[in-house]
Amino acid sequence: MKGILALLLSLLIAVPAFAAEAAAGPAIGQVAPDFRLQDQKGDWHTLAAERGKWVVLYFYPKDFTPGCTTEVCAFRDDIIELRKAGADVFGVSLDDVKSHAEFAEKYKVPFRLLSDADSSVAKNYGVLTSKLGMSYARRETFLIDPEGKVAKRYEDVDPKENSKQVLADLAALKKSKA
Fold first, then answer.
1. Could you give the CA distance from residue 56 to residue 111 in angstroms, rounded to a whole number?
2. Tens digit of each residue's pLDDT (9 = 90 or more) over 84-122
3. How many CB atoms lie within 10 A of CB 139?
């Protein structure tokens, strides 16, 4: 019993400290942290290579889970409109390249799913979290402008509606910059 109480106490102490760390990340108007990650085909991508384009960088917890499948399918279904709006879409999770390849194949994903297996990018964006000893990326999305700055951050993401929110905000942001 004493061991269980000690374990629970250590978890309670560790969680707030970790949560404070996870709350960091780039604010609106700040330059988005660069990254170098592999996609589901094994190709490498950097944010720097996307300069001059709008980027939708969405983080999700785990391939093949219900909410993550809903979200990837929503972005898949809206990809033509997103591309017409001038945006490239990247999904990021801590899953490995093989898992992303299987996930992308099963759901016919027409955009890149990036493997952040060492969780460094999730940490830099302030979305790394853990539960019951398992680390994962919290479901958040960053809309990054052509100059590489965060234009919008979506912290409470509805997996079904996120792509539509991004499309609407992208149109409004492009209109305000015109």
1. 11
2. 999 999 999 999 999 999 999 999 999 999 999 999 999
3. 22
Average pLDDT (136-151) is 97
Contact of 99 with 87, CB cutoff 8 Å? no
CB 127 within 8 A of CB 59: yes
Measure the CA–CA gap between 95 and 176, rounded to whole angstroms: 37
Sheet of strand 54-59: strand arrangement: 44-46, 36-38, 112-115, 87-93, 54-59, 140-144, 150-154
Architecture of domain 2-177: 3-Layer(aba) Sandwich (3.40)
In the block, residue with structure tokens 């017409």:
84
CA 68 to chain centre: 11
Write the pLDDT tens digit of every residue in 20-39: 344 589 999 999 999 999 99
Across 58-91, b (16+ Cβ under 10 Å) vs e yields bbbbbbeeeebbebbbbbbebbeebeebebbbbb
Dist CA 97 CA 114 (whole Å): 7
Q: Which residues of 98-119 are buried (b: 16+ CB within 10 A; e: fewer)?
A: ebbbebbeebebebbbbbbeeb
Name the active-site residue from 55, 68, 92, 151: 68
Indicate if 68 belongs to the active site: yes
Block residue for tokens 């760390």: 21
